[in-house]
Design goal:
Radius of gyration: 34 Å
Strand order of the largest sheet: 9-10-11-14-15-16-17-18
Strand content: over 45%
Shape: rod-shaped
CATH architecture of the largest domain: Beta Barrel
Number of domains: 2
CATH topology of the largest domain: Porin
């Protein structure tokens, strides 16, 4: 009896690996990787690859003992059968002694999978976003599937086009009847206006890519003193070398937990200063409804 079982086992392994048929679409792959007889059961291992995160399968195992001419569904089974979700390795155990006592025949196993897809939905997105230079910003749009969004960010110093010009260690266009002194304060006056798309990779992870107009002025603060007055005023001087205007590219990830959102990514200033190309980290938090 043991010799008979061993012979059948070798035939099961050979035939199941060579004659497996998978009834799924071309985007998924399901394959038997091993079979093994253990006492009065046969264990069938299979794997699922290339399945989308919103798919699940109804797994059924069949058996043929006439060289694949006819297949019958097996009933006395346990393990990973019925509804299965996700890629991975799975096992089905068939209690052959309860269902089909051995006869002198070769067995061919066939696993069929019916594919189901859970429809993806879009949600309204609103989150704070910012980086070192433009810490005040927001993103508004949609999230889920492939969805658009709008984004705006600005610096703590308000945008103003009426600056003096600082070049070659001096203010080129200072024309007031007064004198000035530089303070210790310096910083950026910047603005970003753009749009982008986010793409859903799974239930939690989304990728985003955006582009838009970016304006950045590097400013020094000065005190102005008037000869005919005891009062002074503060204003800003624009350093043209460290200021830029042009295209900004930003890309990164969005992590979505229920209605809570965390974002993180990189920002590239595609047209920057004369001597270097700059990158910064952008992050944010928000929600979706």
């Amino acid at each position: 009896m043991k010799k008979f079982r061993s012979y059948i086992m070798r035939k099961i392994i050979l035939i199941s690996l060579l004659n497996f048929i998978s009834y799924v679409s071309l985007t998924q792959n399901i394959s038997i990787i091993n079979t093994e007889m253990q006492q009065e059961t046969i264990h069938v291992w299979y794997k699922i690859t290339d399945a989308s995160f919103n798919q699940y399968f109804k797994i059924t195992i069949y058996l043929s003992d006439d060289d694949g001419n006819t297949f019958i569904p097996l009933k006395e089974t346990e393990g990973d059968i019925g509804k299965i979700e996700g890629n991975g390795y799975y096992q089905i155990i068939w209690h052959f002694a309860k269902e089909k006592p051995f006869k002198e025949a070769d067995f061919i196993f066939d696993i069929k999978a019916e594919v189901f897809e859970i429809p993806l939905k879009r949600s309204f997105l609103l989150n704070y976003t910012g980086n070192r230079i433009t810490p005040l910003g927001f993103r508004i749009g949609l999230i889920g599937k492939t969805s658009p969004y709008l984004e705006a960010r600005m610096s703590l110093i308000n945008i103003n086009t009426d600056y003096y010009t600082y070049e070659d260690s001096t203010i080129k266009d200072y024309d007031k009847l007064a004198y000035y002194e530089f303070t210790d304060y310096k910083g950026y006056s910047a603005l970003y206006l753009g749009a982008g798309i986010n793409y859903q990779r799974n239930e939690v992870l989304h990728l985003y890519f955006g582009a838009g107009y970016y304006l950045e002025n590097f400013l020094y603060q000065i005190n102005e003193f008037y000869y005919n007055s005891q009062q002074s005023t503060k204003t800003y001087v624009k350093d043209t070398y460290y200021s830029t205007e042009g295209l900004e590219l930003n890309y990164g990830i969005i992590l979505k937990y229920n209605k809570f959102i965390i974002t993180g990514g990189l920002t590239n200033y595609a047209f920057g200063y004369e001597d270097f190309f700059r990158m910064s980290f952008t992050a944010g938090i928000g929600f979706c409804i």
